[in-house]
Amino acid sequence: MRQSPKILRKPDNAPLTRIDLQYDLLHSIFSDENEVFTDPFPCQFDTIPPRSRVTFRNLYVNAVMNSPKASKLLKDKMLEIPEFATHFAMLSLLTNVGRINTTMSFFHEMKTAIRTYHPVPALQKTSGSLQDAPRLKSILKALVLDSDTPKMATTLRDCRARIEAETSPPTPITNLIFILANESVSISKLHFASEVDFLDLFTQVQLSSKSRARAFLWLAYNYYEAGAIGAPNTSNHPESNTVGSRDGANPFSDPARPGGRPPLDELTEAEAALENIDPTDEIEISRKLVAQRMHFLSTQSPKDVSKGGKASAKDDESVISVDSAAKPRPKRRDLGKGKAGKAHVNDGNSIVDQTTPSRMSDSQYRSSPFRASPLLKKQSTILTVPAQRYSPYPFPQDRIAHRTVSGSRMSPPRTLLEHAWNTLLYSDPLADSDDEMADEYCRQDYVERLKIVCRLRGKEPTPEPT
After folding, report:
1. Which of 266, 173, 255 is nearest to 222 (CA)?
2. Computed over its alpha carbons, how large is the radius of gyration of the chain?
3. 125-139 pLDDT, tens per residue?
4. Which residues lie closer than 8 Å to 52 by C-beta, 6 or more apart?
5. Could you tell me the pLDDT band of residue 393, with boundaries at 50, 70 and 90?
6. Which residue stretches does the UniProt record annotate as biased composition, category Basic residues (predicted)?
7. Is pLDDT above 60 for 265?
């Protein structure tokens, strides 16, 4: 596959410039005014009926807004700000053709450590979140048509077969672009005489942006519309604009060769340097976005970032608006604690209040008969950690009743099996085992284990202490 070298790869905090995006190419695609594409979905931002003829921009934006994975917040923002809708669609198209790496994210409040943040100043001139690449891809892949059941089109052969059967369009425009990207080598042989790859149209090559945009639109129309191969127009809406496709000819074809691929205009180095120039205002926007990202990271602890990474690995659909402020979450009050920070302890007959210690006292550690052991010194952090850590699940009353506060009278000793069973029933699964030191049985279990390890220390084949 020739797709992997075409993926954008940049370090964290590095902006995606106009050259990276090939912005002039995207602008030419989304500013084309030929209303020749059949939109199979109800329009989300206009009153035109389904199966009307629209521009590529309106076709693609409406496809994103009709995706089951598009959130209401995203749809409202796209309706409210048409410019944001166009910018979001541009970035989605780059994701659609495989240019955007799935580890990229584009909102500065990102907490996960498994993705890299990248400002996109050319597409972030309005409020609204561009989200991240996995979310964009899920929006595009969730779009289906009735013709996609029971089997979705996955190859160009499937699309051509449906076009020959007068099924127009054969598949959603987003799925068609996925197919074109996956079969880029076949596209190159069929339509470009192996001189240029389909994915090369979206990279920095010595070809004009306008000619590349026209070639892309020609390909999209050729495999999307039944009229491209001479089939009759099946639109039942006389008010639909069918100019350019009524006779079955591809409106983006070469004027000298009706139906043929449009020519690709080569550029000199001087002419290529005049395209995709970053204006000064976008350079300033990039600096501000990087500064916002660095400020956000400075307010986050490494533990918060790692927790965010675990959450994002499970769910790639987290959406945080770029213009939203990070609000601190209110701390939950543990069940069973009073206003004075006391815990209820069940001594078998009644519930008494005793102050819950936050740490093991130093005297308890110093009183250990194995305090001189070097192994025990390495384990000193185990005996001095906080009594319990925050958990999103409050302890039920019966679990608290089984805890014995350090310093109070200890119940009869347990066997190893009893202790293991009690730990399984009443320990917090979200807390680290080394943090659960409020239970005297846990501390006793650690001491017993240290006794065994210390007795083994120094015997063959144990190495000498370092």
Report:
1. 173
2. 32
3. 998 889 999 999 999
4. 38, 39, 43, 235, 237, 239, 240, 241
5. very low
6. 328-342
7. yes
Structure tokens at 381: 């952090």
Helix (H) or strand (E) holding 443: helix 440-456
Can you name the residues that pair with 39 across neighbouring β-strands?
52
Cα–Cα distance measured from residue 56 to residue 244, given in angstroms and rounded to the nearest whole number: 14
* CB distance 76 to 85 below 8 Å: no
The pLDDT tens digits of the residues spanning 57-75 come to 999 999 999 999 999 999 9
- Measured distance CA(177)–CA(181) in Å, rounded: 6
Beta strands in 43-106, from DSSP E residues, in sequence order? 52-54, 104-105
Phi, psi at 132, each rounded to 5°: -135, 170
Pairwise CA distance, residues 348 & 185, whole Å: 76
Q: Which of 9, 316, 4 is nearest to 138 (CA)?
A: 316
Amino acid identity, position 25: L
Token reading at 372 = 């001189």
Nearest by Cα to 128 from 77, 194, 181, 198: 77
Q: Could you give the angle at which helices 156-164 and 173-182 cross, rounded to 10 degrees?
A: 130
pLDDT value for 404: 42
CA angle 275, 6, 254 (to 5 degrees): 55
Q: Among candidates 426, 434, 440, which has minimal Cα distance to 356?
A: 440
Question: How far is residue 314 CA from its own chain's centroid?
Answer: 10
DSSP at 333:
P
Cα-Cα-Cα-Cα dihedral of 419, 421, 425, 427, to 10°?
A: 40
